Structures are given as C-alpha cells and as structure tokens.
Amino acid sequence: MQITTKAGSAASAGARHSILNLPLVPPQQRLTLNLLPDPVAPSPAALIGAPESSPSLVRRARPVLQGSHFSYLSPLPLSFPYEFPAEEAEEAESLGNKLEREIEQEQNDANKDAELTEEQQQAKELEAHRKRMRQIEVMMQRYEVQPSSVGGGASAGSTSKLEGHLPPGRLGQHFPSARLLSISPAALEDCLPHLDIGDSLEWIKSQHGRARPESYSSGPMASPPSSDAAKARFELSDLLSGRLIGAQLAGNGNGQSADKDAQVGTGTAYLAHKEAVEKGAAKDETDQERIERRIGELEERRRQGDDVGYAPWSLCYAGHQFGSWAGQLGDGRAITLLETKDPTTGERWDIQLKGAGRTPYSRFADGLATLGSSVREFLGSEAMGALGVPTSRALAVVSIPDLKVLRERINGAAITTRLCPSWLRIGSFQIHSSRSEWESSRMLGEYVARDLFGWTDVVKGGSIEAADAASGVERKPWARRLIEEVARRNARTIALWQVNGFMHGVMNTDNISLLGHTIDYGPYAFMDIFDEGQICNHSDGEGRYAYRLQPTMGVFAIRELVNALAPLVGFEIQEGRAPAPGDLLRLKSDEINALKKLAREQASEEIETTFTSTLMDEWKRGWAKRLGLQDAGSEDGKGRLIEPLLAALADLDFPTTLRSLCRLPAFLKAHGLSGAIIEGDSDMEARLKEVLRDFALGDKAQGREGLYDEKVVPEYMRSAKMDQFRPWLLDYAKRLLQEGRDGDQVTAEMKKANPRFVLRNWVTTEVVEKLEKDNDTEALERVLQMCIRPFEDWGLPAEGKSEEQVSEEARLCSIGRSLTGNLPSCSS
Ligand code: AMP
Ligand code: MG
C-alpha cells in the first residue's frame, strides 16, 4: 500500500491513500450488502470473464426484476454499438474463431436450405443467431476480469480495499486513453482529504495546450509512470476514466458463492435456466420464493460478516419525468466505483463515474457523456458546493478524446467523477412500489434510515421466517419519519436554489435525492436577468420546471415519495411498529390498498405542510442572510421585503444587483446614517432618500458603480427602473438601520453571502470551446477557481494580479451573452 502524508497540512494529518487503497465503508454499512443485486450478475464474481458470465447482458437494456436494487458491472467506455477491432478478433481466435467458421459453413450451406421445412429453417436461423451472440460474449469477456487474475492481487482477501484489474481487451492500443483535465481542490479537501492524487495537478498544468498522445495521463497510449507520484496519478486517471477495474472478486470463498443463484448460474446460463422453467422443462422456485430466499441469504451474509467481495454497480430506479410515469430508468450512464469513509470525520462519500459506458439501464442510449456536459456538471457541482447549497460534488473531469459521442454533432467523450454520500433517489423507492415489491422497499428504507440518516433505533433486517414478536425485537416506526426527513432536506435545498437563482431544469422524481443533495446537473442554469418564469431546459416547452415553480415541483416529488411508501406508513399507523421482514409479503392486495388509504388520510397533508413550511423558513432565512438582516422574522416574510424585492429585480441582472447591494450598509454608515429612523421624522427620512439616490446612481468620477449594471439597463430605462426600485430600497434601508448593526460589518457579511462570481452559461460554453479547440486547461482552471471561491473580489485590482488578469476576471463575472436565447445545449 502506498501511503504518503500531506506535508505541513494540519487539516489532514492522517495518511493518504491512492484511489484503489481508499478505505471502504465497513461491510455492514455497504449498499451492496444491504440491498439486492440484479439476478443476472448476483455477486461481484460474476464480473469475471468466464464462459457463462455473459458480460453483454449487463450492457443490454432490460427490465431488472426480482426486487433488485442494483446491478454489478464494470465501467466500459466504448462507443456503442460496440465495434471490436480486427486484431482483437484475431487474438480471440482460440475462443471465437471456431464459432465464426461454423457460422460461415452454415451460410455456405444455404442453398441446401431450400430442402428444409419452414420449422427447420427457423430452428437453424435461431441456432446461427445464438452462435453470433456467443461470439459477442467471447469478445466482451476480454474486457472483463480474467479468471487467471483473480485471487492473486496484492490485497486479495482484504475487505477494506480494492484490487486493480486490467483485462486484456483494455490493454491494446485501440482502447481509448484518457486525459485528466481538472481536479477540484475544493472537492478533494472537503470530501476526500485522505486521497493521494500523486502528481496529477502538476501533470495537468504541464500539459496545457498540448495535444494527444503526449497529453494522455493514463491508458495504453500514455507513457508509463516512472515515479510513485506518477503512479498514483496513473492509477487515479485509469480508474476515473473507466479503464482500470477496482474490485474484490475473491471474497471468502475465492469466488465460490454458496448462493443458489450462483448454482443456477449467472448471465446466459441463468436466463437459459429461467426459460426452461417457463417452458416447464425444469422446476424452480416461484419468483416470490426466490425473492424470499435471496433476502434470506443476504441477511445471513450480513449477520455472518460474510465477504462476498466488492465491485462497481449501477442503481435501478424509476420515476416521473415531466409529470408522467416513465417506468424503469436507473443509472443509464452512472457507475458507482466505491463507498469510502473518511477515517477522521467519519463522513461517507460514494465515488461515481458519469459517462463510463452502458448499463442495463441505458435503454437506447450509449452510456457516454460529451465533454461539454461533463464540464458543465463538474463546474456546476463545485459552484453550488461553494455557495453552501447541499449538492453532489465533482472531484475530477477526464476527457477521452478518441472516443466519439454522437449527439446533434460528433463530440469528444469525457467522464465526470461525482461524489455524494448516497446516490439514492425518490425514484429508488418508486421502482419497487410500481412493482409491489414491498420487501425491497422495506430493505431500502431500513438502509437509508439506519446507515445513511444514522438512526440507530431503526432495526435493519432479520430473518423472514422468525416472527419478530417471538424474538422480542422492537421495531420502531421509520417510514413516515424517513419521508419527513427527505421532505425537510429537499425543502431546504430547493429554498436555497431559489435564493441563489439556481434552476435545476429536470426535477423529475428520479433526479430528487433522498439525502436532499442537488443531483444530476443537466440543463441547469444560474439566473442572470431576473425573470421568475425563466425556463432553462429547452425540452421543457410548458415551463414545468421554470424557476418560480421549483418549490411546487418539490411538493410533487414528495407526494410521489408518500405514494411509494404508503403501505409501509399505513402499516406503521395500524400496527404501531415498523414491518418486520416478511410482514408485507403476507399482505393481500386489498390489505395493501387499505394501508395506502390510511397513510394518505393520516399522513399526506402533514408531510406536505412540513415540506412547505420548511421551505418558507429556509427561503426567508436565506434571503435575510443575503440582505444582511439578522431577523428572518415573519414581518420580513413574503409581504414585507422579499417578494417586493423579487418584483423590483425584474429585468435586472440578479447576481450583480445583489452584489452591489452589499455596499449599502457601509455606504449608509459613511454618510452618517445609523440608528432607527423615527416614524414621522421627515428630515431624517428626506436625508435617507437622498443618500439612497446617490447610492443607486453611483458616481463615475469616483469610480463608484451604481446599483444597476449599465450594460443591462439601457439609459432610457434607468429612471423607470429607479422608480421601480426606490420604494423597496427605502424600506430595506430602514430595516437595516433599525437593526442598528455596524454598517461595515454588515457589508462584510453580505459579501460572504452574495457571490461576485456566478457560473453563467456563456462562461461554461466558452471554457468547453477553448478545451475543444486549443486544449486550453488554463481557462478551465481559472473558472474552477472562481467557482470554488465565488465571494472574492474578482475583477478588482489586487497585489500580484496583472491588469489583464483583473480585466479577464471582470469579463467572466459580467453578463456576457444572457441566458435567454442561450440555453444549455441538449448534447449531453
Ligand atoms: P436524466 O433526466 O438526465 O436524469 O436522464 C434520465 C435517464 O436517462 C437516466 O436514467 C439516465 O441515466 C439516462 N440517460 C441519459 N443519458 C444517457 C446516455 N447517454 N446513456 C445512457 N443512459 C442515459
Ligand atoms: Mg437523472
């Protein structure tokens, strides 16, 4: 194991580990040991490229059934449909050539087919098809871990870290190499201070402006690493570009699982078995029995601390898209590599790749992401993190220049490394409720409550057969509590979206996190010219997810979560305890319906009220902070200050106007105004009005900007705009004075709540263009720095800053091309 210590940094006195050596969360708290895997690949060992593992099955779009929560798979960033290179086919001679020859032989025999009956011909075609399919499997197995490489890894048998596997198919020159474009120092410090990134940052800097192949940071075309620091970078880049597979495939039984699933076989063997059962040619459990057995085995494994190994996975979920039920969705291009726990803070982070290839949930798409959408997600997540909005974070973005992604045009591919304590969503419950898989809902709920929310009074699992009443387990209700927690967390997040002028763009229920983080940065945008009706997603013609409707759409999502968990909530109301394993299995559908009704009658309204009142409180608190007011009391609520402000902001640039307002408290102080304005003291009021007029107009001669960005408000509109703003400004100034705080201090505080830099759409677009055209990683780095420190005085002269630098910063803070007519491209 490679351990280095961060020299001189008090923040992380602990050891740092290369990415494969990051400490994993303890087995008991792992998602994969608490939830059910896809039956096609029931354990990490199924990723071994053995004849019956059928690797193409984990890339084939299909319904993933039997109560499954996730699918094991390895990242595979290749263009889709897959094309295997000719030399590879030759290499696969021993395995695949025989099949190829047989197919050819049969084609040569085609003229004999005239003599066959229709039935014989069909059977023959089917056989030929099967052979072709098998050949694909043979090719694909070369991209999976080879049986010979299992068990011999440096850390074989250890449950705390991963082994790196590089299958032969990924070694050849045709496998796309990767280039690290950026690593966020903020994500590293906030989430993974124990990660050793080697010389990655220096490497990125040194490769600015260079073109491949010299700029590859890992992969078959990159120069092999020579120092330890280079090794850590290579390993990081290889893992984050989806080439290197990090897994533990040996497990306790050296890949031999005692599961009946494994005996039935995985991949095609499993499917063939199922087909035989359906035809009555073989006997097997019913689906119900099978689910019960699988849950039982999982329980047993967890109880015994049995080590099944570890491998990446994609989540199965469903959702409502634009208000309509969309059925199974799932991680179509997201693959979670590992869950790590910071040894010092105990915080948990799930490391996930977005755009690393097909999964069973990819439907018709390629599982890849464009450079543009990846950079958008990378910068957007980090910008939101710095604004203090709960969000998934982005550690890195890696481009794969030789991998092409077809959208409206051909794009280069890239992969974002995203971090979140959990990637579970409201849709994670909906998939199971839509299929009446109540045991899966129970397992998921217990896991979220106990391991993610940390509610130690929630009992997880137990045996399905053993009646809990007899074993004396007290099962505290958790379902309603869980929904309320999800509601509160999302209410807070959405309130902060509003306060920060953030538009998510696709608030489908599959994009609403159970932990309340902002997730899935697609067509998001930050508000520039303020318009409450702003729509940022150009496929949202009706404006369902317009800025002003985001809170309402939050209510919709929470209502769907209530619907999904209604039988469990109803059960808890009726029985006064949470359901034990098996309890829900025994209920008939009319009993389930009665429980749903009970939940709707007794819980729905209150939960929605919890959501809306939390949102209102957080919204007021957030605005009070932006306005430098200590009292977020009710008199400053909707009626008094905030709604009139929003009306007054119409057509003004949201970020710059609010940043300008920060100067007001100090300005009032400098003009001798302090203390409350006494009602009826017309002299004082007149003086205040005069000062406010000066403030709003600015003074060019003194280099003092006015309240408005002159590029936004044309000359002829200024006086009308001023009239619109004046009454509010007067009200606001009075409130500031009434609080009686020191003006300079309030101004300083407000500057920490009103960012100078906001990531505007045009800025991201420009960064991407520069990357595409000139491999300009410096532009990306500059904008990243501004994203992670948005409150600094960007664009103002400061020591050590050249004039060009200052003006470039000011340009990046400016309105540029406004959002309207410049919506995010849909080339995702
Ligand atoms: P979104 O609304 O962006 O969250 O996407 C909806 C669903 O489509 C999710 O399940 C995504 O994983 C999936 N998806 C989006 N783009 C792709 C892609 N290029 N390949 C595979 N799946 C995708
Ligand atoms: Mg999504």
TrEMBL record:
Its cofactor is Mg(2+). The keyword S-adenosyl-L-methionine does not apply. Residues 215-226 have a biased composition (Polar residues). The keyword Nucleotidyltransferase applies. GO terms for cellular component: mitochondrion. Residues 104-128, 145-167, 209-229 are annotated as: Disordered. One of its GO terms (molecular function) is AMPylase activity. Keywords: ATP-binding, Magnesium, Metal-binding, Nucleotide-binding, Nucleotidyltransferase, Transferase. InterPro entries: SelO. Belongs to the SELO family. This is Selenoprotein O. It comes from Pseudozyma flocculosa.
